[in-house]
Amino acid sequence: MNRAVYLGVLVFVVIAGCAKESKKEMTVAERLERGRYLVENVGMCADCHTPMNEMGEPVRENWLQGSPILFKPVFEVPNWADVALPIAGLPNISEENAVSVLETGVYGDNQRLRPPMPQFRLNHEDAVAVVAYLKSLRAE
Ligand code: HEC
Fold first, then answer.
1. Which atom of ligand 1 is nearest to the CA of 97?
2. What is the C-alpha separation between 97 and 120, in angstroms, rounded?
3. Residue closest by Cα to atom 30 of ligand 1
4. What 3-state class would DSSP assign to 111?
5. Separation CA 61–CA 50 (nearest Å)
6. Which H or E run includes 7?
7. Atom of ligand 1 nearest to the CA of 92
8. pTM for the model
9. Which residues have CB under 6 Å of ligand 1?
């Protein structure tokens, strides 16, 4: 094999190897950690879904177990939800619908959650990771 062909083959093998590596499935532990990170540090789900103490901090013992919404819009929003439902253990919604809500904002028969629940647009892998993390938590 001449040198150029040899180098070409080598580069191809290395690139193919990297591409394969990046498609590697996440382990269960990695998926849960990704979900925890997105919930705690990006989506700030606890701001609404966890009750606050008198210091305005989320109560860890009731982590994501649902809470009244503590603020109101400055103008009237007809379908405003006063309560953020519990999401620890996802007691009231199927995993499939929860993934769909986080990916598209829509679930089931063209339904949407009411404001102030944000209309997230997570990618599929991240939505699955968030749902796996929520499922792993103790429901109330
Ligand atoms: C600004 C407040 C707010 C934030 C932040 C928020 N939510 Fe919500 N969420 C709500 C409210 C309010 C509801 C209830 C909506 C309704 O009743 O239609 C809700 C409902 C839900 C539901 C449906 C629960 C059920 O049983 O039907 C899921 C799932 C959910 N939220 C997940 C999340 C996740 C995951 C995050 C973070 C990535 C998040 N929410 C962040 C306010 C919020």
1. 29
2. 13
3. 87
4. strand
5. 9
6. helix 3-22
7. 26
8. 0.86
9. 39, 43-45, 47-49, 69, 81, 84-85, 87, 92-93, 98, 101-102, 113-114, 116-118, 120, 130
Measured CA to CA, the distance from residue 48 to residue 111 in angstroms comes to 20
What is the chain's length?
140
Q: What share of the chain is helix, strand, coil (3-state, %, to 5)?
A: 45, 5, 45
Query: pLDDT 10s digit of each residue in the chain, 140 long?
Result: 567 666 666 555 555 655 555 567 889 999 999 999 999 999 999 999 999 999 989 999 999 999 999 999 999 999 999 999 999 999 999 999 999 999 999 999 999 999 999 999 999 999 999 999 999 998 87
How far is ligand 1, taken at its centre, from the CA of residue 25, in Å? 28
DSSP 12-61: HHHHHHHHHHHTPPPPHHHHHHHHHHIIIIIS-THHHHS-B-TTS-B-GG
Instruction: At 97, list the tokens.
Output: 């619908």
